[in-house]
Write a structure and sequence with these properties.
8 strands, Rossmann fold, alpha/beta
Length: 267
């Protein structure tokens, strides 16, 4: 574990394993804890860096809003601190938004990107309204109610009972997030840019991982994204919602491991 001080707050990270560097970026209301079981396999062949995004986990945030670009800058400061110049980034949900912001700002450092239950589109009006409503609720002290309602929805409906231990763990991680961190992240997601152009022009390979039973990114919406970016690799997790690294761990591990080999093949 380590901490890097940035202009927007202290950024907590872990650095394990040896070899080519892979950075895993968690989603909204998550932290590096969410990856604990999933990344163990990757320690054997890669240098794995996990980052608590600003306002999440043990990372702090100074501002009332933190953009995806500012989060990407924070990740870059961690990499500079560690002396890492080339990476593959794996971003889950909000972490995917940060991954695309990083690829936009620091393309020379990117060997490949994995959008793990994430996408390059800005929020549609309904989602924007939902995030703004959540900002008001969190600011009024209702974070626990949001966590209780939203975390089970991350899992495929039929998996909520099957993975109830992980659902409870996800809730526990979410409740550790400060209200200020939640509001800052929500504000940043509300104001994020369309990043489809990043995927179109990036010279490094892109892997998109979608769950067929995702309540947040419905299958038809994911299919539209796939069709828009035919050069990208795609992995469909047939029995997953939004948490494929838990719901179908083996399949997700195999897909990312294969992609990492391809992404680093030119070194």
């Amino acid at each position: 574990m380590g901490v890097v001080r940035t202009t927007i707050g202290e950024v907590n990270f872990s650095d394990n394993g040896k070899g080519k560097a892979v950075v895993f970026l968690h989603g909204y209301l998550e932290s590096i804890e969410i990856w604990s079981d999933f990344v163990e396999t990757f320690y054997k062949k890669f240098r794995v860096v996990l980052v608590d995004l600003p306002g999440h986990g043990k990372s702090t945030v100074n501002n009332d809003s933190v953009s995806m670009d500012e989060m990407a800058n924070a990740v870059n400061e961690v990499l500079n601190h560690l002396g890492i110049s080339k990476v593959v980034l794996v971003g889950h949900s909000m972490g995917g938004y940060v991954t695309l912001a990083f690829a936009n700002r620091f393309p020379e450092k990117v060997k490949g990107i994995v959008l793990f239950h994430s996408h390059p589109n800005p929020d549609p009006p309904q989602k924007l309204a939902s995030r703004l409503s959540d900002i008001e609720k969190v600011s009024s002290g209702f974070l626990a109610k949001i966590v209780e309602a939203s975390i089970p929805n991350l899992y495929a409906n039929e998996n909520v009972k099957r993975f109830e231990e992980y659902v409870a763990r996800s809730k526990s991680i979410a409740l550790k997030t400060s209200a200020k961190g939640v509001v800052a992240a929500l504000s940043g997601m509300v104001n994020r840019d369309d990043r489809n152009d990043v995927i179109e022009r990036i010279s490094s390979p892109v892997l998109m991982i979608f769950g067929r039973k995702d309540n947040l990114i419905p299958s038809d919406a994911a299919e539209e994204i796939v069709q828009k970016h035919p050069a990208s690799r795609v992995c469909w997790l047939e029995n997953s919602g939004h948490m494929g690294f838990i719901e179908e761990r083996n399949q997700a591990t195999a897909a990312i491991a294969s992609f990492l080999t391809e992404a680093f093949d030119n070194d």
